[in-house]
Amino acid sequence: MDIMADLAIPDWPQGAVPDPSDRRMIIALARVLVIHKRMEAASRLLDSVLPDLMADKDFLKSAMAVMLDAGNAAKAAAILRPLTSRPDPIDSDLIIAHAAAAYQIGHRKAAWHLTRRACEAVPIHLTAKEPGQLMLIGVLNQTPLWIENIVTPAEMHFSVNTPARLASRHNDQYRFLSIFPEAQSALNALANAPRPNLILNNWVNAELLLTPRALQSISDFADRLGLPVLNHPRKAAETTRQKNAARLGGIPNLKIPRLIRFAHQSKTREQSVRLVSEAIGFPVIIRGPFSQKGLGAEKIDSPEDLSRHLANLPDAQLYAIEYVDNAVAPGAYRKIRAAVIGEEIFISHVHFGPRWNVHRERDPEKLREFDLDRSLADHAARMISAPDETLGRPAIAALHEIRRRIPLDFYGIDFDILPDGRVLFFEANAVMNISLSDRAGLQETRAAMRAAVRALFLQTAGIKAH
Fold it and tell me: What percentage of the chain has pLDDT greater than the value 70?
């Protein structure tokens, strides 16, 4: 029985201003009402007290978060609009809340401008100081396109890729200073911040870096800091799929699927179909250049299917990539990720999925559907703990040659192993997530990875290891 379902929630008594403990209770009750799907009751409760508490910024921010959770983004935006339109300095959390509300009601232009304002208001973020930290690491982070949900400044700064994981899980070893290089206020903010020992660049999407003015702007900002930089923007810009395919050609025991990049236009659709048919053939993978994690990637089986697929896409740059079927068992596909940390390579994880576009399957029941005897999982565990033995020396040599040719310091390589032992290359870049945290069965590998990261950071910063 759900006691909250029929519980009557009265309005707050008119004229009685809630004291601090009452305010905490009201927010907690409103959150419980939302959890129990009583959105209208939660909104009405907040409406009954908000007129008396508009000056309490902490209460207001909490109330706006509840309103968004209750599906009342339009009301939240109406409340916040006059508060974020004032000429005097505005609390950044209110700008963030307004940006999220605008996004959720579909006002994309307003959400974009509010997101830019939020980034200008908080152009840097310094994580907490802890006694065991070895150094301060500056991180160049990309400003979000939109703030989609109410977040803290820390979440706004550290939201994607490996540096976000480092900041959230390894702040006991390293302190982090996030910097938005696009923010005009960033350099002034840095003047009052502690100076990092090194910079870890997280502006690493090569395709985005190669958009007009981005590479020069971000690279110049990094150079202006006068610090050693890991994954420098100029190096990250060299890791597009197209450039990697050319760079890695000729490596023994490495299969690089053929690819082309073409400009899709509706008026030349049939020419694009002929180009892909002649240069790559079918099946073929069609994907945009900017997305990651396989988003928008489709396997196309025939020229007719390609023509229909392109007819549903806007004019844009696209990749056509040779599809190499490499199922490891009936209905089971595999993706192996290697973490390159300085000059060392580790197998970070091995994921399986029912489709060629593999993402980690977290449902154990679905995993058992194609791994009934756990032979795939057991072999994957051996790949991580003993890669030289399980992958074979030729594959390991190919991975090290990839490492030597890719101009980055700390990044990932996604690949698989073909039946003949060759490496089937998928991609290599610094956009990938690389976890250093312990997991069952991976403790020894993850400890070695953390030691390699520590050595890389110390060497880059010019600090002698103790």
Answer: 97
Mean residue pLDDT of the chain comes to 94
Crossing angle for the helix pair 57-69 and 92-104, nearest 10 degrees?
20
Closest-CA residue to 290 (of 314, 267, 268, 317): 317
Structural domain 333-461, CATH architecture: 2-Layer Sandwich (3.30)
> Above 60 in pLDDT, residue 1?
no
CATH number (3.40.50, 3.30.300, 3.30.160, 3.30.70) of 126-236 reads 3.40.50
**Residue extents of the structural domains in the chain:** 20-121, 126-236, 258-322, 333-461
Sheet with 259-264, edge to edge strand ranges? 259-264, 316-322, 284-287, 298-300
Sequence-separated contacts (24+) of 455-460 with Cβ below 8 Å: 455/342, 456/230, 456/341, 456/342, 456/409, 456/410, 457/134, 457/135, 457/137, 457/174, 457/197, 457/198, 458/134, 458/135, 459/342, 460/198, 460/228, 460/230, 460/409
pLDDT attached to residue 6: 67
**Is pLDDT of 382 > 80?**
yes
**How many angstroms separate the Cα of 153 from the Cα of each of 94, 164, 179, 267, 308?**
11, 13, 12, 45, 43
What DSSP designation does 313 have? S
